[in-house]
Write a structure and sequence with these properties.
Elements lengths: L20 H26 L9 H4 L3 H11 L16
């Protein structure tokens, strides 16, 4: 039986790292999160919320709202001799 000589198969040249699809999945997620975070900071810094006035002068205009809230939350008290569900006629 004749001996067979095995010739080594030349290794294929590896692909560059930027051409590998899995690399873009690994790097793309965190990169998108960083870009979204920076965008959020830019939007928050350029459009700040107004500061609320919590002094006595600022709460004076809230009195009608507080009265309405308290009136709506208070139970209905019927006059003596009538129940709360009856209409006065």
């Amino acid at each position: 039986m004749p001996s067979q000589s095995t010739t080594p198969v030349p290794a294929s040249t590896p692909r560059p790292w930027w051409k590998e699809p899995i690399m873009w999945l690994v790097v793309g997620g965190p990169a998108a999160a960083v870009i979204a975070g920076v965008t959020t900071v830019i939007i928050a810094a350029s459009n700040p919320d107004p500061v609320l006035d919590r002094t006595e002068a600022g709460t004076a205009n809230m009195v009608p709202a507080h009265q309405a809230r308290n009136h709506a939350a208070s139970p209905t008290v019927a006059p003596a001799g009538k129940s709360a569900g009856q209409d006065s006629q």
